[in-house]
Amino acid sequence: MDNRSADQRSLEAKTARQILWSSDRRFQGWTCSQCEWNYPLPTLLTDPEARTAYDRLAAARFREHKCADHLSRLGSPDAEDFTARIRKLVAQGFKPKDAVDLFLQEIALEYRNQPKTLAQAKADGEDFLRRVRAGLI
Ligand SMILES: [Zn+2]
Q1: Beta bridge partner(s), residue 29
Q2: Domain ranges of the chain
Q3: Using one digit for the tens of pLDDT, what is the confidence trace for 108-118?
Q4: Distance, CA 63 to ligand 1 centroid (Å)?
Q5: Cβ proximity of 77 and 118 under 8 Å
Q6: Which helix (DSSP H) or strand (DSSP E) does residue 16 occupy?
Q7: DSSP code, position 32
C-alpha cells in the first residue's frame, strides 16, 4: 500500500512539472518547476531564429530529463547538505557515531515516505563515519 501511494505521488509530481523561464542577474534560461534542471541561454544569443531553436532544444531536453536525477527544488537537502547536518551535530559536541545515529533518526521522520532519500542519507552517514575512521575529517 505504501509503495503504491508513493508511486502515485511521484507520478503526480512528474505530470505536474512545468518548464519555467527564469531570468535574473545570475541566470537566464529554462528551468524545471520541480527540480534544479536548467538549460541556460547562451550569452549573446540574440538572433530570433537562434532563440527559437534554443527554445525548442530546451523543451526537448526538458521532456527527457528525470527530476529524480537532479536536486529537488522543494528544499529537499542534497548529499552535501546531509553531510553538513552531521557535521553540525558533531560541532555541537556529539561523537561522530552518535551524530550519525541522531541524524538518521531525524531523517527517518522527515522523509518517512521517501526510501530513496533515506537510502541516500544512510549512505552519507556511512561515508561520513568512513572518512572519520580514515582520518580524512
Ligand atoms: Zn525536473
Answers
A1: 22, 40
A2: 2-69, 79-133
A3: 988 888 888 88
A4: 9
A5: no
A6: helix 2-16
A7: E
